Structure formats: C-alpha cells, structure tokens
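Follow-up to my post from last week.
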Amino acid sequence: MTNQIIPAVKRRQIIELAETGKRMDGRSLTDLRKVEIKTNVVEKAEGSATVKFGDTYVIAGVKFEIGEPFPDTPNEGVMSVSAEFVPLASPGFETGPPDENAIELARVVDRGLRESKLLDTSKLCLIPGKKVWIAWVDIFILDHCGNLIDASSLASLCALLTSKLPKAEVVGDDVKVLDEFVPVPLRAIPINVTLAKIGDKLFVDPSLEEEEVMDCRLSVAFALDDQKQEKICAMQKGGVGTLSFEELLRAVEIAKVKSQELRKLLPSGEK
Amino acid sequence: MDKKLITEDGRRLDGRRFDELRPIKFQIGILKNADGSAYVEWGRTKILVGVFGPRESHPKHLAMPDRCLIRARYHMAPFSVEERKSPAPSRREIELSKVIREALEPAIFVELFPRTTIDIFAEVLQADGSTRCAAISTAALALADAGIPMRDLVSSVAVAKVDGNLVLDVMDMEDKLGDSDMPLAIMPSRNQITLIQMDGLLTHEEFVKSVELAKKGCMEVYAKQREALDSHFRVVGKEEV
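User reply:
Got it. Predicted complex:
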C-alpha cells in the first residue's frame, strides 16, 4: 500500500512501448523473465526450493508433521500453505501478521496445488480419524520484483516434488517414525501463469513496475495428470480493473502455452 | 460420500434445472443508520449489506488525494453455518473481502470523492453456497441506495460442475461435493468482468461453457436487481407526490 502515487507517466510509457510489442525490460509481451530453480536448499526441511523470476526471489519449504485429520475427511492427510511477506523483501513490507495480499497469495497457490490433486492425501493417512501426515508448505518472499504468485507456486511445487516423506510404522494407536524416507505420493502437476492487463494489452509474468500500473491481473493454473491430460484447475482475478470476455479467453490461451514452457523447467526425474 | 447431486430426470437436489437460479429476493433500504443497505434471500443464503460513506477517512493517513478509498468486509455470522464458525475473520473471509472490494470498485466513480472512504459491510446470516456472489450483487444495491454514483451495477453468480454437468447458481451441497466452482461478477451493461475465480478441474471447452452459463446467470441477476431498485424507489416517489 506504499506506492499509492501511481506514476501515470510510466504507465503511458509502458502502453506506448507495448504498441510496438516491447516492454521496458526488453521482453516481448509474452516472454517470461529468466526462471531459475534450485531444490534441496534447506537440508532440515523435508523439501525446499528457491525460485527466481528475473530478480523476484522466493523460497518455499515443506515440513511433514503428524497431526489430526479434519473431521469431514478422516482418511486423508492435510496440506496447508502459508505465505510470509518478510520485510527484507520490499520497502513496502512490514512486520506483523500476514495481510490480505499475503493471504490471497497463499490461498491462490494452495488452490493450484490442491485442485490439481497434486498430493495424494489418501496416502498420507496413518490411523483413520486420528493420525495423518500434515504437509506444511511455507512460502517466504525474499525479493519482491513482481509476479509473486507464479514464483511462489513454482517454488511450492518444486519443494513438494523433491520432498521426502518420513517412513512411519503404525503399532496399535502409536506411530513410530523411522529414519527412512519414501517419496511423497504425487499425481497431477499444476503450473500457474499470471498475466497483467495494462490498457488493452496482456503482459505475461509482470514485473513490479508493470504491476504498479496494471488494471488487473489474471492467474490461471493448469494441471497435467498422469494420462497427459491438461486441465484448468484454478483461476483468480486480482486488482480493481476489469476484463472483457475476449480478454479473459485470450489470457487463458496465452497462459496455457506459457505453462507448457514452465513445465519443461521442472527438476529432472520428477515427471 | 456418494450422494447423487443430479436426479435421474436431470434435476438438481432442490428440483432446479441445470441453468436455473434459486429464488432471489432483494430488499433495499432496510437499515436506519447505514447510508445505504440491502438484504437478500438467495435460496437459503441470507446476507445483509450496509454501506457508509463517502465519509471522512479514519485513520487519516489512509486518505488519498485524488480518489476515495473503498473498503469491504465480508463476514460470516457464527450461526450461519452447520458447525459454529469463530467470529474472528478467517483467511477465507480476508481473501473474499479483497476480491469483493475489487469486484465492486470498478463500478464506483471513486475520483468524485477525494480524501474520503466508502465502507461496505456484508454480513452473512445464513450460508448456503454462492455467498460471495450474493454479497456482491446485494452490495451493488446498497451502494446505489446510498446514492453513490456508479458506472453500472455489479451482478454475480457461480457455476459449478457436478456429476459431469455444468450447473448455474451453486448451492452449498453442490459446492462441497462438486468438481469445480467458478464465481463470476460482471458490470452487465458494460459487459466487463470484475471478478473471476475458479477451482476444480475443467477442460478448456468446459471452462468456456462455464463462462457462458455464468454470464447468462449474471444477466438474470441483473434483471432482479433492477426490479428491486425500481420497486423500492417507485414506492418512495409515490409517497412524495
């Protein structure tokens, strides 16, 4: 909320440049920034990854813990996604509990992971109704240079893809956690792509300066299941601008192509 | 849970066709203190919306020199759902408050009221699915009742996929057991989308059909909103003559 004085000059500049198909940082409207993924960056976490989209820098960690299932799904493990906008990431971030932006981000990432049915939660059940694995996915924004949703989604995904689940033995009502690990039961893989609308143009992977002047954004997650079927699994519009129906459909088409490009960057050996 | 959501003769649990809205009854101007208010009974979903403003911004540093600040709060009463909900705002309510604000703000001429705030409070008294859509549609009427200049109304409805069928105006059971849920809000006469969210699995073709069905539903909600405005203000007009 700190950058309230919108640089109208910059907005005009961005729109004019976009007329020629270019952006301030030299990209075309549909180019992603350079994406870098590193996994297993924190050994004490069961899974972890850092992701960079240009200068945007995000880390996600996965911890598994034994806990109680939700009463309405006694046979299923639990996944919980949280996000922290830590103050070192931006002059605009402050300490304190997550604000609506951090909560929205975590819930949008969560929806992509959950609705794609990435985690097979039925295999995370230890004692039905009593003990299940809880997968805690925690996202830390380290450097905010735009498009936190895609970077956070990819970091969370890569952390889960490379995480190892402790092996557990059930003896009566007790669970013994062994010093061995099994792969996490995964199914479809979700990839999220965000576009910003500025004027009548759509910008893939918006930078911070584009986000500051955008009308609105649309995030679309695509899931690819083990039958190689690609489906839309989550969507979110953000910001106070509007989209026409034509823009919505165009954005979804572009996002689909870009999701296929991002999919190729996933850690090798992980589908 | 293997409850069937669609009966053999192609009806939904409450007897509706796939493309049919629940009965919707808007009432306008029912609170004395609020500058504008509206209430809806949307099937079994019941929501009360109050609007205050434009009024002085508190705290003062929130005030913006060139426009008015819009705030929205979506809140569920503890007794609005089967199992008591804690009255403290949940993460879900915080996210919904944000998207509801973003769905309504495009319709408001914010530049007419610099340095002020408009507060929109939506209290869900009973939740039976599509509460964010009902809250947005009702809030648009409360804003109109407050006399706030608007470009358009905002009309909203959700489409779900249940047992392989796309159905309009999702009720709670269909939301919980269905395969997808997609709320949409539009400014009907400008044909612009102000809110879209989606979760669940849809093919591209199903998504396009969901959007079409939701748009049709929004236009039907719009007709009901106009009817409510019309009858409310016509009655007032008669009294004054």
